[in-house]
Amino acid sequence: MFAVDISTAVLIYLSVTLLGVIFIWVRFERSRAFRKYDVHPKEVWNCEICTYTYVDSLHQTLSRCPQCKSWNRRTVS
């Protein structure tokens, strides 16, 4: 067995802990970066009055613009 003084033991402990935290942080950041918000094209609405683009998945033929409160009708395309 080899002898390690207290300052070297603390340095090794802190280094291993810091590397573990950095590894976990990088892993979660990479997994969060690859998540995308997937929207079906039928859920995207364009207001004819104010040209605001918004998502509304609850309505199929009529939807109310959240910005100007006007009603929009789905155009069949």
What does it look like?
The chain has 77 residues and is an alpha+beta fold. The protein folds into two domains: 35 residues; 33 residues. Helices cover 36% and strands 16% of the residues. It contains one helix and four strands. A two-stranded antiparallel ribbon has the order 1-2. Strand 3 and strand 4 form a beta hairpin. The longest helix has 28 residues. It is rod-shaped. It starts with 5 loop residues before the first helix and ends with a strand. 5% of the residues are buried. The mean pLDDT is 87.
Topology:
Elements: H1 6-33, E1 44-46, E2 53-55, E3 62-64, E4 71-73
Antiparallel strand pairs: 1-2, 3-4
β-strand percent reads: 15-25%
Chain-averaged pLDDT: 87
Overall body shape: rod-shaped
* Biggest beta sheet summary: 2 strands, antiparallel
Q: How many structural domains are formed by the residues?
A: 2
Q: What is the straight-line distance between the termini?
A: 77 Å
Structural class: alpha+beta
**Major sheet: order of its strands?**
1-2
Number of strands: 4
Please trace the helix and strand order, writing H or E for each element. Answer: HEEEE
Radius of gyration: 27 Å
Q: Specify the helix fraction band.
A: 25-40%
Please work out how many helical segments DSSP would assign: 1
- Low-pLDDT runs: none
